[in-house]
Amino acid sequence: MLSTNAPSGEIPCMKLFESDRTLAFLDIGPLSKGHALVIPKFHGAKLADIPDDQLTEILPTLKKLVSATGATDYNILQNNGTIAHQQVHHVHFHMIPKPNETEGLGINWPAAHGDMDKLKALCEEIKSKM
Prior knowledge:
This protein is of the alpha+beta class.
């Protein structure tokens, strides 16, 4: 069902779920069958811009999408900032089924072994700010 109920109502979408705080819809450029987006209706460009109470339905909605699509292998992706590959500057989460090696998200990030002393220091620094 095509709907014009994007958060501000100006962009058509194929809505899958909607509540007062959350909207889920199919991606119009899917990487695989069932590729969907889940967004908070509260506008914020990056995750840290969204109040916690506006994020409470995001993971449960993603979980329902996984179940509804029958995906057994999938990626949940959320980018923040242009250099982190964010193209639409409204927080959104992708649920991308990975039915086989060629469909879905392809990730090939460079894995590295960290310096344990540096990681321990970083861990303490981050914990002290939480």
